[in-house]
Amino acid sequence: MATAQKEQPKLTPMMTQYMAIKEAHPDCLLFYRMGDFYEMFHDDAVTAAAVLDITLTKRGKTDGTAIPMCGVPWHSHEAYLARLIKAGHRVAICDQTETPDQAKARAKRDGLPASKALVNRDVVRIVTPGTLTEDNLLDARASNYLACLTQTRGVFGLSWLDLSTGEFYAQTVASKDLSGTLERVSPNEILLPESLIQNPDLFEIFMPWESALTPQGNSLFDHNNAEKHLKDLYKVESIDAFGAFEPSAITSAGALIDYATRTQKGSLPHIRPIQSIAFGSVMEIDAATRRNLEITQTMNGERKGSLLQTIDRT
User: Residue range 115-134: average pLDDT?
Assistant: First the structure.
């Protein structure tokens, strides 16, 4: 006689909700709000517990295996968030979008008992190295630039934005100047098309920035869509009033705004008028010379001992 297999327990409504939200954000650690804590489950919990040095516990089971879980207090989550971002992770912040009372009222309207009420939750923000805006998580003496690099007909377009201050710049860059320009801007995150990161001619240039690179689908870098994003941002019919921009610079800047809007879930802070950095208006120093001069950091990568640290009186 065949032995009946033990039926595996189904996921709870809460865990079903969690899994659906996590599936939509597979490249992020998911901070899932439960009361006064942000909880993490499965592989996210294992990763976060190791980085944050917090206790890894268990909650329920799936397929007969205990579900790893860890959490951080909601009221002090920013400190934990900063450590995860510094470790190179992206974090999706999932908050409750209604109160328990509102959830119960909704369940009642749907003809369900209050005990079946599950508070609606949604991701309200995606935090990446280039999209931090909290003053207490940023170095007040340094910019936190999110950059975007594109290439149109052999010409590189580079734009960079500091969401915490609204500074926004764009320029074209010659191939020979790309490494030095990236060193000058010193972005914490660089968006670029997947096709560009696969270009063997750029491997050496990208090597120092490997941890900052955020490849995106090539569709993000459509020129017409990028120009529309800029027009929508500033509510203008043309961006000519902001200066003369090459097509590659417009594509770069518009794609950057699209990405920033998506990570902030449409709630962008004030962005200043975009500034065009004209060719020849900035003295470009190649990366090796910049490092040897120790302008912003020493050869060991430290600010202390650099020219900037010596003359900085702020």
Answer: 92
Question: Which amino acid belongs to residue 185?
Answer: V
Tokens 């489950």 sit on residue: 41
Q: Dihedral through CA 75, CA 77, CA 79, CA 81, nearest 10? A: -160
238/128 Cα distance (integer angstroms): 30
pTM as predicted: 0.82
d(C-alpha 199, C-alpha 134), whole Å: 35
Architecture of the domain made up of 136-283: 2-Layer Sandwich (3.30)
**Phi and psi, residue 112, nearest 5°:** -110, 150
Angle of helix 77-86 versus helix 42-52 axis, rounded to 10? 90
Q: How far apart are CA 216 and CA 213, in angstroms?
A: 10
Q: How many CB atoms are located within 10 Å of the residue 300 CB? A: 8
* Burial of 29: CB neighbours in 10 Å, binned 0-12, 13-18, 19+: buried
Residue ranges with strand state E in 8-96? 29-34, 37-41, 57-62, 65-73, 91-96
**Contact call for residues 148 and 120 (beta carbons, < 8 A):** no
Annotated domain spans of the chain: 13-127, 136-283
Question: Is 279 a residue whose pLDDT tops 70?
Answer: no
pLDDT band at 300 (very low <50, low <70, confident <90, very high): low
For residue 182, which of 77, 38, 287, 99 has the smallest C-alpha distance?
287
Q: What is the mean pLDDT of the chain?
A: 88
Each residue's pLDDT tens digit, 218-263: 999 999 999 999 999 999 999 988 888 999 999 999 999 999 999 9
- Kindly report, residue by residue over 174-198, the tens digit of the pLDDT: 999 999 999 999 999 999 999 999 9
CATH topology of domain 13-127: MutS, DNA mismatch repair protein, domain I (3.40.1170)
Strand 121-127 relative to strand 91-96, pairing: antiparallel
